[in-house]
Write a structure and sequence with these properties.
The structure holds 2 protein chains of 2 kinds. By secondary structure, chain A is mainly alpha-helical. Chain A is elongated. Chain A contains 4 helices and no strands. The longest helix of chain A has 23 residues. Chain B is mainly α. Chain B has 7 helices and no strands. Chain B is globular. Chain B starts with 13 loop residues before the first helix and ends in an 8-residue tail after the last helix. The chains are: A mainly alpha, B mainly alpha.
């Protein structure tokens, strides 16, 4: 039987790569009998989900700063230059 | 020429219509405002060159965001190259000393709230540059472990340590700032 420390290490590893079969089985058995490690598993998966959700959501948020005026001008000019070069 | 239903809007309207969205998107990912501006500019310029390739199957906004994602990944790769030159002793994986606390079983909605995302964003900002780049490339860009190791010139063990620490930091930051728990350590 693996310890919680070993289980948590495996839980983290499986976030990033497939575990070998033996480890997968040992982890599954541990998770069936442990009250704490399933929380860790859940949290890591949650963290990944919310990271992706929030990144998308924040881009839509008016609470974040707008593109600064100076930057707008500069970028518009760069696109216009490109356009001119393309048609000239 | 378009295949799908949508066409690319006139480039003269791009900054006005998509500038803020792309800037905010970049800001969340790369944290630095000047870098974010540069990436938005690169995105629009690349989009101009690629506009004939637009198929109309995704909304223009999604199309721009796709290009921006590539530029963001390029940025992290450049960051990785800078770190490649630094020497780092291989650190052993630390023990998982603190037992993880259970996050309350919140309805999915809590993560839909922008205040929560704002808290998460502030927690993300606390990561040091390399940890942030590594974490982003893994979690958001979904690069494989080997790919990230190659970019940074680090071993799998190094990578695991960096990811572990980043995740720990984020979990604790959220525990403390959102769920109102005091860190055990």
């Amino acid at each position: 039987m693996i310890t919680c420390a070993e289980a948590m290490k495996l839980i983290e590893e499986k976030q990033d790569a497939e575990l070998p079969l033996g480890s997968r089985i040992r982890l599954r058995m541990h998770l069936m009998m442990c009250k704490i490690c399933p929380n860790f598993d859940h949290q890591l998966q949650q963290l990944r989900r919310i990271m992706r959700t929030c990144v998308a959501k924040l881009a839509e948020s008016a609470d974040l700063p707008e593109l600064p005026e100076a930057a707008r001008t500069r970028i518009r000019a760069a696109v216009a230059r490109k356009r001119k070069a393309a048609s000239g | 020429m378009t295949v799908g239903a949508m066409t690319i809007p006139d480039p003269d309207t791009w900054v006005a219509d998509f500038g803020d969205y792309l800037y905010r998107f970049a800001l969340v990912r790369v944290r630095n405002p000047d870098t974010a501006v540069d990436l938005v500019q690169e995105t629009f310029l690349a989009a101009f060159d690629a506009r004939s390739a637009y198929r109309g199957d995704a909304a223009p906004k999604t199309w721009f965001a796709g290009i921006l994602n590539h530029k963001i990944l390029d940025h992290f790769r450049r960051t990785a190259r800078e770190f490649l030159l630094r020497e780092d002793a291989a650190e052993p994986l630390p023990d998982m000393a603190a037992m993880p606390s259970a996050w309350p079983n919140n309805p999915v909605d809590i993560f839909e709230r922008k205040e929560f995302c704002e808290t998460l964003r502030r927690c993300l900002e606390k990561l040091d540059e390399r940890s942030h780049a590594v974490y982003s490339m893994r979690e958001i860009d979904e690069l494989e472990v080997e790919q990230i190791c190659n970019e940074f010139g680090i071993t799998t063990t190094n990578l695991r340590v960096i990811l572990h620490r980043a995740r720990e930091q984020l979990r604790r930051c959220l525990d403390f700032n959102w769920f109102g728990k005091d860190s055990a350590k």
